Amino acid sequence: MRIINPGGPIGVFDSGFGGLTVVKELMRQLPAEDLIYFGDTARVPYGTKSKESIIRFSIENAEVLLKRHVKMIVVACNSSTSYALEVLKNKFDIPIVGVIDPGARKAVEMTQNKRIGVIATSATVNSYAYDKAIKYFDSGVKVFSQACPLFVPLVEEGWMHKKFAVDLAEEYLKSLKRARVDALILGCTHYPLLKNVLKQVMGKKVYLVDSAYEVAGEVKRVLEIISKNRKGKKAQYQFLISDRPQHFQAIAQKFLGRSIHVELVADK
Amino acid sequence: MRIINPGGPIGVFDSGFGGLTVVKELMRQLPAEDLIYFGDTARVPYGTKSKESIIRFSIENAEVLLKRHVKMIVVACNSSTSYALEVLKNKFDIPIVGVIDPGARKAVEMTQNKRIGVIATSATVNSYAYDKAIKYFDSGVKVFSQACPLFVPLVEEGWMHKKFAVDLAEEYLKSLKRARVDALILGCTHYPLLKNVLKQVMGKKVYLVDSAYEVAGEVKRVLEIISKNRKGKKAQYQFLISDRPQHFQAIAQKFLGRSIHVELVADK
């Protein structure tokens, strides 16, 4: 593998805000690493778009990051990972980590009864990406998936604590409860913010897999293998956005608990 | 006004599916008119995007229709009308009708206590387009607005009849009930599908303004003025889409109650 810029930042892209859960975990688990985040807020969401469009958008997003000399790319969007990860790996000559495999591996590790649930966007569910990844790690596991398109706007309204959040979750999760899954993958980077509601609906015995946490661990392992871990230096963080930079800045600062600079990258 | 193609079709664009409520009304009220619909499903939704992006998308959408020699353009998207209608009118030399004015005029006509409510996407609410239009027709009216970002995905899930649809509507509408509005503009082309829920929450005495119905009436008046009404011929309908044509076709056929042909216009 050709190393373009071993001292460079880690690039992360997502369709919008959701990938910030991955950024937060990377900051926590790899505090010395520089990060560049690109959020394609002009075309968000990806979860309802076609395979062809998601692949086109993902290639364009990777190119935005490569222009900034990133040393690796984290695809912090489940829909992009589902459809575009293999295309990106073939097209670009740097390490690329998606959000599917780390979560799938953890769920396989945690399940006792070999029945795993996956909640995600329509695009991720329709791609069968989690099914394939889980069966790769353990072909004996049964996978039950459910698309939950209202969860993202619910989180973006900040209504995680409303009573109807539980009613909505009950509606979406009833087939997974009936299927008696004992591990549930939160297959969309927004969903960790609904953890309490999901725990209440699924019950304490179901293990919830937080992809953001697992992805950061995977990035750490990759960096150890290719020995490009930075140590000791103060990390730099850059945020690029294709629409509404102020809006993004306000939400991201609140979520990350630090002030950040956001740059508009328009008309990609 | 220069007439490019007086015998041509009426062009209609929207960010996605919502504009079909306008198409259905046009088919009903102007059965002899040819229609070309363009739905920008690759970048849907517009309601959460910035003014600059919405203007850029709207110009591109109008150009798609102009290439097909439309005689007028209906902007069947409230977000586009709010931010881009004036830009489009200045840029293109054919009649362009938006969805804001017709609904605003009807609400002013119907209100008794001069207190009008508007529910719409964030972009439409933040643009103050309805406020301006209502005050243009009657400066003595008070306007109360509420953005309802969960209504579109709720309608797209087909969950208009679930109990939590009423809970969600109660949450969104409580400030408008408190304000004692007696007319409520459904300022997003998806919302007429929630009419029953909105009626239940607001009470029978509040008049609900259906923009789609009012817009079709406006188009009819414009065509009468510029005398390009077609009579007697069998109308042709064309549907252009920037992503997921089969998905659009399935939903549109069900909604319109007729079989249609859908063409993909990619990489705009």
Explained architecture:
Two copies of one chain form a homodimer. By secondary structure, chain A is of the alpha/beta class. The first copy, chain A, folds into two domains: 10-98 and 213-264, Rossmann fold (3-Layer(aba) Sandwich); 101-210, Rossmann fold. The first copy, chain A, is 46% helix and 17% strand. The first copy, chain A, contains eleven helices and ten strands. Chain A has helices at residues 20-29, 51-66, 78-91, 100-110, 122-127, 129-137, 151-157, 163-178, 195-202, 211-225, 245-256; strands at 10-14, 35-39, 72-75, 96-98, 115-120, 142-147, 183-186, 207-210, 237-241, 262-264. In chain A, strands 4-3-1-2-9-10 form a six-stranded parallel β-sheet, sandwiched between helices. In chain A, strands 6-5-7-8 form a four-stranded parallel β-sheet, sandwiched between helices. In chain A, strand 7 (183-186), helix 9 (195-202) and strand 8 form a beta-alpha-beta unit. In chain A, helix 1 (20-29) packs across helix 10, helix 2 (51-66) packs across helix 3 and helix 8 (163-178) packs across helix 9. The longest helix of chain A is centred in the first third of the chain and has 16 residues, at 51-66. The relative contact order of chain A is 0.19. The mean pLDDT of chain A is 92.
Mean pLDDT of chain A: 92
Percent strand of chain A: 15-25%
As a whole number of angstroms, the C-alpha radius of gyration of chain A is 18 Å
Which second-level CATH architecture of the largest domain in chain A applies? 3-Layer(aba) Sandwich
Count of distinct structural domains of chain A: 2
Distance between the termini of chain A: 28 Å
Oligomer: homodimer
Q: Say how many strands of chain A there are.
A: 10
Name of the top-level CATH class of the largest domain in chain A: Alpha Beta
Total helical elements of chain A: 11
Q: From N to C, what is the helix and strand string of chain A?
A: EHEHEHEHEHHEHHEHEHEHE
Enumerate the spans of chain A where pLDDT stays under 50 for 5 or more consecutive residues: none
Mass-distribution shape of chain A = globular
Query: What is the topology, as strand order, of the major beta sheet of chain A?
Result: 4-3-1-2-9-10
Helix share bin of chain A: 40-55%
